[in-house]
Amino acid sequence: MCGRYASSRDPSDLVVEFEIAAGNVKESVQELPDNFNVAPTDQVIAVVERKNREQPDQVVRKLTTVKWGLVPSWAKDTSIGSRLINARMETVAEKPAFKKAFASRRCLLPADGYYEWYETEQKKNGKPVKQPYFIRPADGGVLAMAGLYEIWRDKSVADADSDAAWLWTCTVLTTSATDDLGQIHDRMPLLVERDRYDAWLDPLSSDPDELLELLVPAAPGRLEAYAVSKAVSSVKNNGPHLVDPLPPDGEDPADRPGPPTAAEDTPLF
Fold first, then answer.
1. What's the average model confidence in pLDDT over 117-134?
2. Where in this protein does the record put region Disordered (predicted)?
3. Residues labelled as active-site residues
4. Strands (E), the chain
5. Other beta carbons less than 10 A from residue 102's beta carbon
């Protein structure tokens, strides 16, 4: 699964990366701070394409903010979102929670990289100690994770024209991890390469077989992984230090003697 990632790219850089017109950046995107410990239910940046209301045969690409944890349009309330942070590639075209979004509401979720936890042979309180790893593009580029988004109507807000009446949410698509990354975790987020951005985002395209063909695991060597501090295991911790590699001696700052810290909290998964 993908349960945490880092997102610190400036919106102006994303505008260039994803070929978005400067006027199509939602103000709330500008307000989002750098987040090196993105967790489910957080607001995140997404790239979407929407039909032009005045010219339905044309689309507009936008940079917007959505809440991580997909809430289907038919949901009675938003609580289901915390259970739908990931959608499996193998079943996304058939699952009721994802089927409609997969057909016409696909998005890209820009990231610096994502975290996975590896179960070591060490034990603490009878349970395996989990070592977090940060996985990112080896070339330092932007990671474009394949996602879906939904728009849920909050009927407690009477004014349907109000932004508060509509909740935008998303989920990250996952697949079986490639051999080199499968040693850390058996699942990984699906990535969309630059030459497939247009086809993946196009809301006028809905053939499930063609869409699934766009999604392939990262090529060998495309990503690199390294151990990071256990401090990332708590959502209370944030900052660029979370993506720093552990020092050569392997000492984790979170393991140093001292009073208990937020790093000792239990991870979300």
1. 87
2. 236-269
3. 2, 116
4. 5-7, 35-38, 43-51, 59-68, 86-88, 106-111, 113-124, 127-137, 143-153, 166-176, 187-189, 223-227
5. 21
